[in-house]
Description:
Aconitase, domain 3; 3 domains; Aconitase, domain 4; 5-stranded parallel sheet
Amino acid sequence: MAQTIIEKILSRHAGREVKAGDVTWIGIDRRTARDFGGASVVNNLKKYYHPPYIDDRSRTFFTFDCNVPARDTGYADNQQTCRDFAEETGVRVFDTAAGIGSHVAIERGLAMPGEIFVGTDSHLNIMGAVNCFGQGMGDRDIAYIWAQGRNWFEVPGSMKVVLEGSVRFPVSAKDITLAVIRELGSAGALGKVIEFSGPGAESLGLAGRITVASMATEMGAIAAMIPLNDGIRRYIEKRSGFEPEEVTADPGAEYERTVTLDLSAIEPLAACPFSPSNVKPVSEVEGTRIHTAVLASCTNGRFEDMVHAASILKDNRIKEGVTLKVVPATYEVYSRMLNEGILDIFSRAGAIISNPGCGGCASGQIGMVGRGEIQLSTSNRNFAGKQGKGETYLVSPATAAASVIAGEIRSPLNLSADLIDFVTDEEFEDCPELSIISWLSESEGEDEKVRPRESAVSGAPSGTGDIIRGSVRLITTSGGELMDDIDTDMIFHNKYLSITSLEEMGKHTFETLEGYEDFAGSVEENDIIIAGGNFGCGSSRQQAVDCFISLGVGMVITRSTGAIYKRNIINSGFPFLEIPELTADSLEEGEELEINFSEGTLTRSNGDIITAEKPPAVQVDIYRAGGLFAYSGEEG
Length: 636
């Protein structure tokens, strides 16, 4: 059978040949937890497993990047919980000075072609930049993998995006990525893996690959895979100490869709409020007044991104009344900026420079906007309310730099700037010592078998049966249609990510969703939530599922569901169904439903039956078991 890249990788890790749609168990190569999800991972491990809790500590890491240093006691407590657990178990911590975990992993040679890297980070698809399959997951998923070293997985289908031609500065990889999102939309690759190909993909350096791969999440994709070139192969070998073995698709592999883009026709682009898919040419929104800009995030925090902005800011000043906040992705990037004069350029221009980390994506110290404030960001999301009550446009580093000089959105094509000479990441020789490699090799094979506690096998709460009854709660737009693209910030905002108590989560449900701010106070036990497509898009936070459990909600039904959210809700043992053709007219607010969950049928009070997509066997089995920790399923 001719296989796609993801089918090959999952087949190798399953020990058998698999194809799209198969459900299989796979071994996991590397697994991480971030500061906001790490404490919950620890709590789950201690609740459901005996010491030593970790099946292989050499493959297991904490990364602190969302909120560094901790800006409040909640994050401080969570980070210290992780440190204490790491000291107890021997798990390695990349602490608050290291930078964004996915980037640190690539720099340290921990993400290798053909391997699987998982963690509590919805943008771990960044690993596709080095031909590694990265998957963001919730804290239950990750705790299970830390203890068991494996997990179940449904093999996703694949689509291909062919990049023809090339771009030239000041057009960059961010503009390429926004062009792809404009073509596909926010759910155009929902649940799929995108294989990028063509000369435009092969010519990208590491920073550009990271930008393209990271924003696959905003297209609904599980991952994005990009072919290696000679420079990236040298980089991987230098950083890991091993010769990379790239995984490529077989001739004749089947793709659900193929899209071709001509890069030579791309101009600077901007994703306008309030969606990464609301993409327009910068020329169409030029002149819009701005108050601030942020050069940061896992999408555009590399050294190359910094140089793109510095090339425009050199010998210029940020306009009076406008601010620019700069957050390097990692300590290595920060160090290079310092040593090669890039920090000096930003300083002389009047920028605010922060320590390495994510910036404002998880309600951190940098990037919050007040009501009426207009922000440009090189990040990946601009959902309503995510970074405050203002408006955020997503742009490239070059567009951000040109705009802060002008005090309004301005295309970098309208400014003359010569690209500052710099070596690319793959050519950079002054990499840190590879002590991580010797530490890994010394740790192999030392761990004991992890045993589940009795509560994980027999004492966990089980599903209440396949028949579920409750009242309909429609989540609709002001026009009365089922609301699409309800992201995890709308469900459970990032400012509450440090909350780990289930009892405390429910009251914040839909708190920032316009029209549903009082939802938590009005919802009744066993109510059935009915929403539109791409529900739960956005981050990997488990709280966006657990808040419904906290409130006693009986079920969630959508037209379609975000890929990571789907795993989180299944592994919670919480019932949900998908009905692609569902509309607001299909059901009435408050009407009673009787649902046969395992069969996927909804019986209305008038006797009419609505048929949903039948849930896969693994979903039903986990529900009946009472959640992932009580599930001991077999292959297939």
